[in-house]
Amino acid sequence: MASILEIRHVSKSFPGVKALDDVSISLAAGSVHALLGENGAGKSTLIKIITGVQAPDAGEVLFDGASMRFSKPREAGACGIGVVHQERNLVMRFSVAENIMLDRLGAHSLSRVDHTAIADEAVRWLKMLDLDIDPGTPVSRLSVAQMQLVEIGKALSLRSRVLLLDEPTASLTPNESAALFAIIRKLKADGVAILFVSHKLEEVFGICDTVTVLRDGRNVCDSVPLAGLNRQDVVKMMIGRAEQLARRAPRSKPAASPLLELRGYSSDAGHRDVNLTVRPGEIVGLYGLVGAGRSELAKSVLGLSRQTGGEVLLNGQAVHITSVASALHHHGIGYVSEDRKGEGLILLHSVLDNAGITIWQRLASRFGLLHDATVAREVGPVIAKLEVKTPSLQQTIGNLSGGNQQKVSVAKWIAAGVKLLIIDEPSVGIDIKTKAYLHDLIHELAGRGTAILLITSDMPEMVDVADRILVMDRFRIKGEVENDRVYERVSQAIMTFIHDRKAA
Amino acid sequence: MTTAASDSATTPEPGAAEVPRPSVTLQVLLSNEFGLAALIAVAVVIFATSLPGFTSPFSLFTLSRQIGIDTMIGLAMMAVIVTGGLDLSVGAIGACAAMFFGFGLEQLGLPLPVAIVFALLLGAGLGAINGITVVRSGVHSFIITLASMSIFFGVMIYLTQAKGFNGLPPGVAAFGRMKLVGPVSVLLVTTLAVCAGLLVLYRFTALGRQMLSAGANARAAELSGIEVGRTLIFCHALTGALAALAGLMLTARTGAAVPSMAGHLGQDWLLPAFLAPVLGGTLLTGGRVSVIGTLLGATFVTVITSGLLLMRVSEFWVQAFLGLMLLAAVLIDKARHTLLRRRGMI
Amino acid sequence: MRQSLAIRLLDNDWAGPGLISLMAIAVISILQPAFLSPFNILVLLSAIAVNMVVALGQLVIIGVGQMNLALGALGGLVAICFVGAIEVLGVPAPLAIVLGLLIGIVAGMANGVIIARTGISAFIITLASLQIFKGINLGITKAQPFYGVPDSVKQFGNTAVFGSIPWLILPAVLGAFCLWYLFRHLRIGRYILALGGNRQAAELSGIDTTGTVIWAHALSGLFAAAAGMMLVARLQIGQPTIGDDWLISSFAAPVIGGASLSGGHVSVAGTFFGVVIIAIITQALVLFSIDPFVVQIVLGGLILWAVGINRFREWRLSKLAIQGA
Fold it and tell me: Could you tell me how far CA B135 lies from the centroid of its own chain?
């Protein structure tokens, strides 16, 4: 098969880190190519190089056999490389047609926009995607899946011969995903080379022909056919070891009465009839796809959205939590956010301030005075125990690695001595060693009696860490799986609960 | 999350912490405060040697008085820039507080200390109204304080019918003329005391830390158990109180409370209010302040201004020059950041 | 997709302010018949014409998601340059108008270039240029007005085309139509709104963001210059204080007209009714001999009220959109 786009021996360094080291990949016309790798493996850097956001330090990019050097996204687009990013990049108040044709509204600044011609052109691409919407509709009125198709249409309208889809199913329902795959197959039949980036191996095996796996910025494999591989092989390539099956023995069931109990809980955010208990010393997993309402449930319990029905019991007492401050200071509940940079840490501030933020109020003297040394006395030992690699406590946390940042965002709750810790996607963007360390830490915390509610979309992590697993879908709890650490059985049981809704 | 954020989140950066950091001495030399201090020193030396009147006791006295007032105006804005917001109504609040002060002394016959306390409370209250409106509505402070500057000033000018209070007790004007330690105005000493208080607030109190956290990343602060709404309202109230104090200091200088002391709608305060903190290295996006920097920034501006005026440059051209200085300050700061980042120093 | 009546009404920016304008006119003219006298209408329309051009200058910048504090200072600077050129340099009036507009465009572009190239907030850059423009203005005039306004200019500012329609309406209508057409039909208008609506999407689509920002500020400078010279015609004198009081009203009118301050959404028709509402209220205060100082309070109150209404509309729209989906 002739390859359209070829990346040869590309390297890219950032200050202090080599993100890509001698990486190659080649995309062939009429085939779907999977790009796999853990968070931090170098996928996003490779995507940036392909789309011209960043230029490589070494190596070359060949398009149709000719060497290219993109320095702007526009140049890659002009070449016929279309991208659909993970987050939506549409102008909400503009029409579907205008969004598709945004860079071709006219020859110069004072050109009149020919709305009819633009609509006609847009309809061509909408038809190709079987998308039956009026091109004049404002994008804000579309569903998320429709918006995504509009973006694919926009990418295709550039006569793209290479289409890059970055986590396209992250916010789609299974039905919508299936429809998307049908379109991908159609494009493939038309000769488009598709690069499919996803975490969901089931999808990769369902739709892809070839695969490239990255680990620590290097190729583990370069454009090999997927046919000869099974799931275990791919996982092994991604994480450098076989999927850990039953590495930890199932823990004994804590008998204590529940610390947190939700009964028939519903919320403003959209939760309906949620029942959930967490006991001291227990690790309860909450599994679900992106958008299932798991983080929203955590934030709702913390008082960030209004409770509209049911009961919240803490130690058997009905409580009404209205703010995160009262959740922390009165009820001893902490939350490690999945969005470390946006919600978890204050990147501008020091390690000390980030780790001590939860205990300032407790440590302050009667007049509100608070000295760094006082905070450091409490926080220092925790930072040391968690082996956070930092030159000093005064170091700006934005300068630490992802793994060390994540340790600090857990450390602040350990310092606060919370009784219930909700941990949301703990291993996003951190290295494997830190990930294993965090798993051990969660077990240790639970061993000392902390109740843990673990939210993750990472199935191996869930099976490795949780005691029992609740499955959430569309803001409801669909069922519970007892975790005996047998990966195949547990993951099967979880997926059955989620795919349940297809039948419904 | 934006692409940039998620991408950098997934980029491994194990070596980032091991990048050699510049030494402490170098960091001090590269700091805004040091640069400003050096510039002030150079300006003072040039003016002192070339302008004979510059070092006269009277000139030094008016200089110190002006530094005191301009710093206070800058500190008022700094207290709200901490939140990543701003307050266009500082001038209006300052004028309101000063007029209320005059009204209290002249019409109600309040004792001086009581009138001062009431005026400061009024300033804090008006600031708190701004804060509550910003927090409750979720609208950017620019548009809220644009409206409140019009309302505060309008109510004040309606109630006073644009007439000032000229019959203040002689103690007020005497305070404005008072000197401590040689030619240094007592107004500057007041400002220095407030600077010390703010230094303690931001460095050594829980509330100050909460203000900085809420300003740097409100979402993260809230999820870490900080009552962000309440903290932001405090910031706005502090701005109001400091603006009121600046209004009182201006009243002491002129010996009368006049509604036009901060110009139409209090707009004349906007430039000094932003110039001092921006020169001093306070981040407009919030979360980092420099009290000393604001003091040095205001000092630099005042030294240059009085030097130019002594050189008989028209005050109108000085005004244009101050605008150029603000422009130069932000451009140099931008260039400095880019350069340091490229060299991996920050 | 079928649009419900509720969505269409909520999505409409000018219907609300338009209705309020009409009601205000009805109520005031019943209470005070002098309000509809030909002379009063002429005065009212003259004020509306100038304020409309001022508001358009801010509207362009709001569209791109920024703000322009220097609008008034630039208007004032152009006003005195315009009269100064005629009086001191003896430049013929038409040429002076072109010169004035050029100064506006160039000064606006300077703002735009600095903002777009450095990425520093428009607030701080235009605060600095406000001070610079104002300082130059006062430095040239020494705070004294120029009196040498030619008769042709004076006539333009104070006579009617026919009936109660002042000549000043002409540039206002022309400017409003051009801006409406630009936002609706020209590439640059769509790019300004795209940039204001979603900066990242605009950048990734390959739109020249720097050029678009510069265009927006150049247009804003053009409107500021036009408004400054229109005020000279109306006041019959080159006042250095022209533009000092534009700040509040230049934001109030677009916001009352439903403009989103985060950018990407503006309404020329809505802004027109915003200007009308402000003018009517100001006039009414005079007619009913209410303290003119109250105007400031009312203007501030109007901004808060409009911001509240806009938030409510956005909130209702998002709720309805969720239900409809």
Answer: 22
Average pLDDT on A403-416 reads: 92
- Confidence band, pLDDT 50/70/90 cuts, at residue B3: very low
pLDDT at B327: 93
**Residue to test with chain B: of A87, A151, A333, A349, most B Cβ within 10 A:** A349
**Which chain A residue shows the shortest CA-CA distance from C188?**
A109
ipTM rounded to 2 decimals: 0.89
Question: Are residues C128 and B265, on separate chains, in Cβ contact within 8 Å?
Answer: no
Confidence tier at C324 by pLDDT (50, 70, 90): very low
Query: Domains in chain A, start-ordered, CATH in brackets?
Result: 3-239 (3.40.50.300), 244-332+418-504 (3.40.50.300), 347-416 (no CATH)
The shortest CB-CB distance from C198 to any of A91, A113, A134 is to A91
Q: What confidence tens digit (pLDDT) does each residue in B37-56 have?
A: 999 999 999 999 998 889 89
Q: Which helix (H) or strand (E) holds A317?
A: strand A317-318
CATH numeric code, C5-28+37-324: 1.10.3470
- What is the pTM assigned to this prediction? 0.89
Name the β-bridge partners of A214.
Answer: A219
B327 and chain C in contact, CB less than 8 A = yes
Which tokens hold the place of A187?
């494009």
| Confidence at residue C188, expressed as pLDDT on a 0 to 100 scale | 96
Give the Cα separation of C254 and C163 in Å (integer): 29
The shortest CB-CB distance from B216 to any of A19, A348, A399 is to: A348
Residue B272: CB partners within 8 Å, gap ≥ 6?
A: B70, B73, B74, B298, B301
Nearest partner of B270 among B105, B90, B111, B104, judged by Cα: B90
Domain count, chain B: 1
Burial C99-112 (b: 16+ CB within 10 A, else e): bbbebbbebbbbbb
